[in-house]
Amino acid sequence: MKDDESVSVNASSSSFPPSASQQEDRELELKHQQKEEGFQYLLKVVEWLQEQEFSQLPLVRFEAAILPKEVIAVIEKEADAYSYYTWRFFVSLNRTNIRIEQTAQKKKKYL
């Protein structure tokens, strides 16, 4: 009979609602999990962006009517050859927020 009594006591003690501190802990765990999932998603976005063709191209765009198209084509070809611009993605995870910083760094060209 003592076994039956202990089972009923255990069942009744687990039916209490969680305390405020337990609820806060659960909410913090959920927030942390969501941050981690968001961070992983942003990392995948950065990887995808780096794989795209546009990220490998220089940031030179000409729409001038003064230069002949042949000159523009040569300048664009040279820009591609020397890779004027490189893109670096720095992903930093802060305790309170996630941010992606994108910086462009110009390479020096020596002729």
Largest sheet: 2 strands, antiparallel
Percent range for β-strand residues: 15-25%
Q: What distance lies between the first and last C-alpha atoms, to the nearest angstrom?
A: 95 Å
How would you state the average pLDDT, rounded? 66
Q: Give the total of beta strands.
A: 2
Region (Disordered): 1-30
Biased composition (Low complexity): 7-21
Strand and helix layout:
Blueprint: H1 2-13, H2 20-51, H3 69-82, E1 85-93, E2 98-106
Antiparallel strand pairs: 1-2
Give your account of this protein's structure:
With 111 residues, the protein is α+β, with helices and mostly antiparallel strands. It has one domain. It contains 3 helices and 2 strands. A two-stranded antiparallel sheet has the order 1-2. Strand 1 and strand 2 form a beta hairpin. The chain is rod-shaped, with a radius of gyration of 29 Å. The C terminus is likely disordered.
